[in-house]
Amino acid sequence: MAEKEISQAVIGRLPRYFRYLGELKERGIERISSQELSDIMKVTASQIRQDFNNFGGFGQQGYGYNVEYLYDEISKILGIDKQHSLIIIGVGHLGQAIANYTNFTRRGFVFKGAFDTNPELYGTKIKDVEVRPIEEIEDFVIKNKTEIAVLTVPKDQAKSLAARLSKCGIKAIWNFAHVDLDVPENVQVENVHLSDSLMKLSYNINRYENKTKK
Q1: Cα 22 to the center of its chain, rounded Å
Q2: Which of 6-25 are b and which e, b meaning 16 or more Cβ less than 10 Å from the residue's Cβ?
Q3: Helices (H) and strands (E) in the chain — how many of each?
Q4: Closest to 191 (Cα-Cα) out of 206, 205, 174
């Protein structure tokens, strides 16, 4: 039987569910209803039930959801119940900020390697990880069975690096370069265009201001 296709909108909400359930778990809350979760997250109870039904439901009529069980199940769906190794290519301000973000380690993303084109950075360390020349990427990825590459390089370098990474077995690219990447379908790409997010924010400011003027 073919696996059910889950919409990207549903997948996009899963990390938020996971985060809120983690907070509930830390507070010692054992059970929660879809309506109670709705009040906290500002997502309709109907939407929550529909989202969870894509994966089997998880709840019981009249009981609600077991917080720890739901947290663990979403962890498995997201694949963060196991560790993923990652490298960062481009260790400027953004690359270093990502490397130093402690929540990644808590979520199972282990920072293994750092690469740059600047010879002055070679041999320096970020969180005990040595910065290496960009020419060493392929050997490192193969030797360390690296799964994820984080690209924080200028867009004129990103496409050629993505092609190299695809050939040496990288499974996914977290792309901060402002360019779309052409990679094989077995390589997953998540694009993070910071300026796009700001423009979306600007749109929402304008929409709110225009609404209040009416």
Answers
A1: 16
A2: eeeeeeebbeebbebbbebe
A3: 9, 9
A4: 174
3-state secondary structure 48-93: HHHHHHCCCCCCECCCEEEHHHHHHHHHHHHCCCCCEEEEEECCCH
CATH number of the structural domain 8-77? 1.10.10.10
- Answer whether residue 3 shows pLDDT above 60: no
pLDDT for position 1: 36
Q: Which of 144, 143, 96 is nearest to 118 (CA)?
A: 96
Q: What is the mean pLDDT of residues 141-158?
A: 95
Which residues lie below 8 Å from residue 3, measured CB to CB, with a gap of 6+?
none
Domain positions in the chain: 8-77, 84-196
Residue 180's SS3 state is coil
- Tens digits of residue pLDDT in 75-95: 999 999 999 999 999 999 999
CATH superfamily of the 84-196 domain: NAD(P)-binding Rossmann-like Domain (3.40.50.720)
Positive or negative, the CA dihedral 129, 135, 137, 143 is negative
Token pair recorded at residue 115: 């690469």
